[in-house]
Design a protein that fits this description.
Elements (H helix, E strand, L loop, with lengths): L1 H11 L2 H4 L4 E8 L4 E7 L10 E5 L6 E3 L4 E6 L2 E11 L5 H6 L5 E14 L1 E8 L3 E8 L6 E3 L2 E7 L2 E7 L1 H9 L7 H6 L4 H14 L4 E4 L6 E18 L5 H4 L1 E2 L2 E13 L2 H4 L1 E23 L2 E23 L6 E26 L2 E7 L8 E13 L2 E10 L9 E14 L1
Antiparallel strand pairs: 1-2, 1-5, 2-3, 3-4, 5-6, 6-7, 7-8, 7-13, 8-9, 9-10, 11-12, 14-16, 14-23, 15-17, 16-17, 17-18, 18-19, 19-20, 19-21, 21-22, 22-23
């Protein structure tokens, strides 16, 4: 249980890990157009960065750059440019708009993420204060224009209501009126990365212009995981009255274990979080012995054999620490266990002076086939290979009122990730 507690505590404190610097190869272009390669502290920015840390090649000292000191930078297949743009900061809450119905538009120099780069380009900006914004630029010398979407209060049937103005659709219709084939897509396009990127991509294709760059948009990834290794299974029984099961000391069962899993990786936080689902097979065969001794002429030997094959369905939350090369990971969750093909026998040898009798019976009167258990694990990942150490403290395998039990299983697994 201490092992489980440590893993769960680690999972709750992973925010400390995400604060670590994570340098990846990248490049910057200064305001004079000079390009330089090096390492950039990549943060998988949910909000566009206000500054970046950059270590030039041949140096060990990180430099700080703001939008005013750079023309652009690239890291992890993401491109950012520096631009002075308008930012729609009109409130989106009813009470705030009642106080003042004027639109609030700021002008700032910021880092814009490039979504599409071509004859017509699309950019993205997200901040805590006002949320997400999209910008479009037509032609190499065109102006970067915000695609406006804002809230306002309107009178509808004598009642004031909060509505959202999708002004960006009218802007887009004016900008791409030279390609009528794309016009229907404008009215279907939501104010999202996916829809607007697809729209601008289609427009560039429609006017016969090559696209230089399209951003890889965040998306959920699915990885098939195949596992094989060794399991160690241990069971203990407890009873308030003298009982063969409770008195016997059962051996640890060591058996091979195999499983197939699906790791659903979320794009946020550098793909650190995932939901891991796995269906595996565990088999065990354990032997226990005890002796009830009265004297040398009157004693009873009891031998118990328990065996089963278990299907185990695991569902866990997993955290993989973003790093280059070897990546540590931890996870915790729940496993559903179904046992079948059980072995459940007890042989009693009674010695009374010169006579010996043998009796065979079942050891567990009511075998509990279905149970649930917590699961926790740690491991390391390198490229497509994982090494996984897992602990599963199981529940009672008997439904009897007279005796209870606890199980524990430890797995050492090698995994290949497709």
């Amino acid at each position: 249980m201490r092992f489980l507690f440590i893993l769960l505590a680690s999972l709750l404190n992973i925010s400390l890990l995400t604060a670590q610097k994570y340098y990846l190869e990248g490049n910057t272009t200064n305001t004079e157009g000079v390009k330089q390669s090096g390492l950039i502290d990549y943060r998988d920015w949910k909000y566009n960065p206000e500054i970046i840390r950059f270590i030039p090649d041949g140096s060990k000292i990180p430099l700080l750059f703001s939008p005013s000191s750079l023309k652009s930078f690239s890291v992890n297949n993401e491109k950012f440019i520096s631009a002075e743009v308008t930012i729609e900061r009109t409130p989106d809450k009813f009470n705030e708009l009642l106080y003042s119905r004027q639109r609030i538009i700021s002008e700032e120099q910021v880092f814009l993420r490039v979504l599409v780069e071509g004859e017509t380009s699309l950019f993205y900006y997200n901040e805590k204060k006002s949320g997400k914004h999209f910008y479009i630029k037509k032609g190499a010398t065109g102006e970067i224009t915000e695609l406006a979407r804002y809230s306002t209060i309107s009178e509808i049937e004598g009642k004031r209501e909060l509505i959202v103005k999708d002004e960006y659709k009218d802007q887009l219709e004016n900008l791409i009126r030279d390609c009528r084939m794309v016009t229907p897509l404008i009215h279907l396009a939501d104010y999202t990365m996916e829809d607007l990127t697809e729209l601008v991509e289609e427009y560039n294709t429609c006017i016969g212009k090559e696209i230089d760059y399209i951003a890889d948009l965040p998306k959920i990834k699915f990885h098939l995981v195949v596992s094989a290794g060794l399991s160690a299974y241990k069971v203990n029984f407890y009873s308030s009255d003298p009982d063969d099961l409770a008195a016997a000391n059962f051996s640890t069962s060591y058996r091979p274990s195999v499983a197939a899993g699906l790791d659903i990786v979320f794009p946020s936080s550098r793909e650190a979080f995932s939901i891991y689902n796995e269906l595996g097979i565990l088999s065990y065969n354990t032997h226990g012995e005890t002796q009830w001794y009265v004297n040398e002429d009157n004693y009873t030997d009891v031998e118990i054999n328990l065996a089963a094959i278990e299907l185990r369905l695991l569902n866990a939350v997993k955290y993989t620490m973003p790093s280059r090369g070897v990546k540590p990971f931890i996870y915790a969750g729940l496993v559903n266990i179904y046992g079948f093909n059980t072995g459940n026998s007890k042989t009693t040898f009674t010695h009374f002076y010169t006579t010996e009798t043998e009796q065979t019976d079942i050891a567990i009167t009511v075998y509990r086939r279905y149970s649930q258990a917590l699961v926790a694990g740690i491991g390391i990942s390198y490229r497509n290979m994982n090494l996984d150490l897992r602990y599963v403290p199981g529940n009672d395998i008997t439904s009897s009122m007279d005796v209870s039990s606890s199980t524990s299983a430890v797995f050492v697994l090698a995994q290949y990730v497709f």
